[in-house]
Input
Amino acid sequence: MKLEPNLWFDEVVKTYHRISPYIHHTQLVSCPNLNEELDGRYLFKPESLQITGSFKVRGALSAISRLSTKELKRGVIAYSSGNHAQGVAHAAKVFNTPATVVMPKDAPARKIANAKALGAEVVFYDRRTESREDMSREIAKEKNLVLINPYDALETIYGQGTAAYEVIHDANNPKLDNAIICAGGGGLTAGSCISIKHINPSCNVFTAEPDEWNDHQLSFKKNERVAMDTNRGGLCDGLLTPTPGEIPFAINTHFGVQGLSASDQSVCNAMKFAFDRLNLKLEPSGAVALACLLENKEKFKGTRTLVMLSGGNVDKKTFADCLAQANL
Output
């Protein structure tokens, strides 16, 4: 893969202007008590307040907006645990093209219902015994649909990068010491790196993952993509991608990204922290970056750090159970 950081950034800017009419410009929030406690400045980007409830709609709009008239007539297909599915369904509606989404049978009911409500046809698979990628490719071939990759495609990554592009324009002081970004396939981290590193080359960027699904953290240590055991579930349903995407990993490695991970207990604590102190309702996957900050307070003490709160699509029972388990 040819590394072209300046070209990538130009594409992020173009993408932002293309998709901005169809998204929320989510405003940064902060927690004065946390700033005082850690003697720093901690900026939270609440993509939980985004249209469809997560950052994923940015990448979906970016990819679908690039399709030709002929491709739009064919329709699109995507595979997703839920947030990319909703993003693609919304983007397909914006650009008037039919959408099919391949989702795991055990995806949260709210995410399934939202994808259907947005007009997508939902096809289910078993994440333990079936390959969502293979199934999607087969359906795409059979029905002549265009596959919208959730993270392993530059056109998607450019869209994800618009979240961090907003940050560097919204912050009174755009200089950041650190950025903590949740990672499933790694597209949001890659897009964030493109935007942030253009302005702050010395900023340290970290992926945030659940302890038991820390494929990025392990991959960075080995300098090669590591695959996880897929025969198990996890609290953070949106981050159960078994290995980093090829393109995101190349970009993230180029920018020197490091890996962090957090326990499920810390994720529950982060969800309660966000609800009580930021007035934000996060899904487990959307709270992992905050969990990594709270687990590593000394590491980030006295710094100016961005934390991506990537999604808020959580059903009432899961949210209540996580808050009840929190021990803040």
User: Anything to note?
Assistant: The CA atoms of residues 152 and 245 lie 5 Å apart. The longest strand covers residues 204-210.
